[in-house]
Predict the 3D structure of the following.
Amino acid sequence: MRIHLIAIGGSAMHNLALALQANGHQVSGSDDEIYDPARSRLANAGLLPASIGWDADRITPEIDVIILGMHARKNNPELIKAQNLGLEIHSYPSFLYQQAKEKKRVVIAGSHGKTTTTSLIMHVLRKSNTSYDYLVGAQLPDFDRMVRLSDSPLVILEGDEYLSSPLDARPKILHYRPHLAVITGIAWDHINVFPTFEDYLDSFRKFLQSIEPGGTVFYFEGDAVLQKLIEEAPSGIQCIPYRAVPSGEKEGQVLLEGAPAEWNLFGNYNRQNLQAAWQICKSLGVSRATFAEALKSFNGPALRMQQKYASEDLMVFRDFAHAPSKLMAGLKGLREQFPERKLKVVFELHTFSSLNKDFIPLYKGALDPADEAVVFFLPHTLEMKQMPPLDHGFIKSAFGRQDIKVITSTTDLKNWLENEKQKGGVFAMMSSGNFGNLGE
């Protein structure tokens, strides 16, 4: 097929383009901005657009399918041309479902822990020589791409609750209709498209309704909001609660089905993810022995509490955290792992929600596990998102800590880090952004 991706530079979109090309399709794409790693990966595959920007002349009747990314707008000239020509247009989750509708579908949903849970399932299935397709939200060791499409009868999908495309305001998770599902927990996010918590909650309510009749959902029973939502689940599906896998007697050990197993990650929230992954793998026929053996070599996905540096006096972790629940869970895990060490956090306000004055108070207490805390944001980010300035005093009050240091320039952040690293401690660099291109 001839397939054109509008907004090819997105994380999922460029990986989908690479997967489609690998399957022999004729692939093209466009975008008004493409940054690394997408830019380099598309260039290496010969898929980088010859010119950046939109051009309606790229759209011809010979194209079989248009895949529309969320970054595009309804008035995109290429989209308008495709509509006028009557071409088949999909969001990427809609397209994925078309490729997976005859497969057994496993979807990992929830406000946090999705990527770690999904990547652990993928790691175990690979170690057990199981064939499967997948979509995951981070680059994983030993995996060339974040998307795979083949003739496998099984697909593992990380289920994002964000909107599907400019033409499709449904959450992505509503496309997939899983046979097996996980909901890791629910904490309000994406305030720009879910202006109230009830709006956000409704996406998961509809997700439960989308599970195939006779299907199964595993849910974290320690989440009171989720527990209540499960009471509304359709009668035709099985709802099974889970809790965190217990810690073992030794460091780096958990009790899987009551027996010790090696585990390289830390924190209660990761042991919750571990339990969710185990429930899915067990449902797919993976034995405890196979699962436990695979755990030994699992070190987590990129930028999910990833250790970037370690010495006797200094440790640095990088975490892809932006929502209050993710921030709190990550810091609690570090506090549990290093109870005697000075814990220092730099948290970047980067997403629309995290920069929104109505949302920021939800972070109250989230930085409390840290001994020292920096909140970092760039005024330029606010300008780009057409949002009002943020007062430093408001940020301190909203987070509930007057000792927070608020930094608004990359140079000042570098200077603070250079000074603090001389004193040692455990540093947590937490953001869905890149700290103003701070670098390593």
